[in-house]
Amino acid sequence: xxxxxxxxxxxxxxxxxxxxxxxxxxxxxxxxxxxxxxxxxxxxxxxxxxxxxxxxxxxxxxxxxxxxxxxxxxxxxxxxxxxxxxxxxxxxxxxxxxxxxxxxxxxxxxxxxxxxxxxxxxxxxxxxxxxxxxxxxxxxxxxxxxxxxxxxxxxxxxxxxxxxxxxxxxxxxxxxxxxxxxxxxxxxxxxxxxxxxxxxxxxxxxxxxxxxxxxxxxxxxxxxxxxxxxxxxxxxxxxxxxxxxxxxxxxxxxxxxxxxxxxxxxxxxxxxxxxxxxxxxxxxxxxxxxxxxxxxxxxxxxxxxxxxxxxxxxxxxxxxxxxxxxxxxxxxxxxxxxxxxxxxxxxxxxxxxxxxxxxxxxxxxxxxxxxxxxxxxxxxxxxxxxxxxxxxxxxxxxxxxxxxxxxxxxxxxxxxxxxxxxxxxxxxxxxxxxxxxxxxxxxxxxxxxxxxxxxxxxxxxxxxxxxxxxxxxx
Length: 474
Ligand code: SAH
Ligand code: SF4
Ligand code: F3S
Fold this sequence. Notes:
Layout: H1 13-19, E1 23-24, E2 34-40, H2 44-58, E3 62-64, E4 73-78, H3 83-102, E5 107-111, H4 112-118, H5 121-125, E6 131-133, H6 141-149, E7 154-156, E8 179-183, E9 185-186, H7 197-201, E10 205-206, H8 209-221, E11 226-230, E12 238-240, E13 246-248, H9 249-257, E14 264-268, H10 277-285, E15 292-294, H11 302-307, H12 314-328, E16 333-340, H13 347-360, E17 364-369, H14 377-381, H15 388-411, E18 417-425, E19 432-436, E20 442-446, E21 455-463, E22 468-472
Parallel strand pairs: 2-3, 2-4, 4-5, 5-6, 6-7, 8-11, 11-14, 15-16, 16-17, 20-22
Antiparallel strand pairs: 1-2, 9-10, 12-13, 18-19, 18-21, 19-20, 21-22
Helix pairs in contact: 9-10, 10-12, 13-15
Bound molecules: S-adenosyl-L-homocysteine, iron/sulfur cluster and FE3-S4 cluster (F3S).
């Protein structure tokens, strides 16, 4: 994640730490007279939503800025997935108090999942907040801003069964001009017992397939080379077209893949219970659909998976992995999410998680200590009884195991040639470029005469657990 250095000069170390996980809006070239600063936390869907918000507010004469000190409207698009995600936002608000005291006219709005979860309570608890807006209420922002300007506090946390913002063209923020996200659905109907998302994002709904294909086509025409289709559970995408035929996720993938062979297609997240053979065969059929699947397991213990209400057990999940490898081959990239220390987790359950990891040998992982979220089924029915030090130790073991597997998987790439889509300079040097291969692995190589957006064949010569290093070949 690139930080916008301009806006950092007025921040202290604490702020920088908070911002390390946030995305900041860019300086938009525009004739708009009002300045809007957006900071986004949480998942890619939230980042994509901020681009919709920027688009809605452009109609209201707002242009985005990376300099918080010149903004008249500050929006924090927040995440509620774990307690520390909310703490980060509370911290950030604390640090905005002096600015708000100095510049009385600046307005502060909280958007996203924390807004939806806490509703008017946020206004009571955080006095500097003027406006609280949930993820389905962004079209109402212009009205809410008017209310705030008239001196009132404004709230809209209505969750919709239909809203998909299908007709709104996002304004790309923090973009490299090569890769972009497209939201294809909203909400989640799964009710995993630990998860707050069904309450903050509402019921699952799929976006008009034609509007998705149009967005992908427009992006390609503007020079983008890769789109990632986003949803909490993309494999349950289902849309009814005007002639009553149903577009499934496999159908949609195919439609987007057909935009151009030079447009790469990725997707995230897949729920293991919903990813079908049809999706796997569609991936196989198109070279431009990347052979990479993010398939969160959450635990390797069938008993814990049952308590989590994940609707699959260990054996079923392993069967899915086997199927992926059968259809797409050993090289297909697979990554995980794991939760350490869920309610009642024993040492044996934890060992089951480690042994599942040994079985799969994931390329990459996102790993978390369980954090109880108020009003979720787990909070209501189960006891968060694994002590913090045990959670931390188990999490550390999971992370260490993942690091070993990432290295092992990366070593398999040594001596092989991959087609890399260049996303920009490597973090360390302007003499090196970085981009990802099909399996979503970052590869660094000498720049020569290549540019952002080029596809380059790269021979991998070295690796660490995080990166592959190589050189371009014919
Ligand atoms: N829809 C995706 C995940 C969304 S949330 C899926 O079903 O996989 C991203 C990840 O955060 C989850 O996969 C889970 O690993 C983690 N997570 C969610 N709730 C959590 C909680 N209460 N405590 C710790 N981690 C959590
Ligand atoms: Fe949360 Fe489960 Fe839905 Fe993912 S599938 S968003 S973990 S409820
Ligand atoms: Fe966080 Fe909401 Fe995404 S809770 S992970 S921002 S859907």
